[in-house]
């Protein structure tokens, strides 16, 4: 095997590995060749459009790896980087105006000469917040030179008009939905819908769903959600209601229920979370159809688990996630995949 042949590198949130592998397995032309932490490498796919459509992946790059590809070597063989630049700009001229090189010693003469090459050859301007993100990094004995294939991470969806504080990462929303067995579902409820990330991901990925409803008690969040839904072209498909869980809104029964529960600093600061979660679990056990799936995401998983254990709901499995928030703190939330416990049938003779 030619060790420096181009590869696709996909980075994902810790804990979403099985979701990423499931998604990739749906494409016959994508082949995983190796894994490294929360990244995996694929054989280079000529058609980057397929890669750009992946929903469980946070970021995608084209990379070349070789034990020789240190900054000095790249500065003396600039066509290695040029090849990557031309591959991602091929059908995308004009999408990239600025660039940034992430590399140890970014002020060194070698890296400066690479930056000059990027400016002169491709007319790009060097900037801290850049469209084109180049990296030259060493992992073990191997150097990797790579470029992110899109100006924004894949996890930043086009339908997001504005980011709501406390909104869910869309790759996690995709994961939650993919754990609901939605291929066989007709009706879908999203409790605490916020800016509608879960609803939109469900509407876009599962056109078979006949009924998609969400509710939230915050007017501003409903209004932002409506804008996102409109941008996603799903205004006829998704219904949003302004309702409070404490009022036990009567919306019918559902094959799937999802929720990104309120927690932490930005949402429900003064709420008694335990009480809120209790109402939520009681509501779900009344509104989930038998054989249906309830999939819940929260950082306050101990509170949730305790309440579920005393309810008619059973936990089928959990996924533990870990990622860095925008304020550089680690969050370790969990996804709970649940169903209703089977009721005992007592036959009276
Ligand atoms: C973590 S956020 C959901 C974020 C959403 N998944 C998104 O991506 O934007 C939780 C939501 O619960 C809503 N909420 C809090 N308490 C509520 C209650 N008692 N009844 C209904 N909604 C409530 C908040 O307004 C907030 O939008």
Task: Look at the structure and give the mean pLDDT.
Answer: 93
CATH superfamily descriptor of the largest domain? Vaccinia Virus protein VP39
Per the principal axes of the C-alpha atoms, what is the gross shape? elongated
- End-to-end separation in angstroms reads 72 Å
* The top level CATH class name of the largest domain: Alpha Beta
Ligand kinds:
S-adenosylmethionine
Biggest β-sheet: strands ordered side by side in the sheet: 2-3-1-4-8-7-5-6
* Contiguous uncertain segments of 5+ residues: none
Q: In CATH terms, what is the fold-level topology of the largest domain?
A: Rossmann fold
The biggest sheet, with number of strands, parallel, antiparallel or mixed sense and barrel status, is: 8 strands, mixed
Number of strands: 17
Strand content: 25-35%
Protein name: Ribosomal RNA large subunit methyltransferase K/L-like methyltransferase domain-containing protein
Pfam family, one: UPF0020
Domain Ribosomal RNA large subunit methyltransferase K/L-like methyltransferase: 157-318
GO molecular function, one term: tRNA (guanine) methyltransferase activity
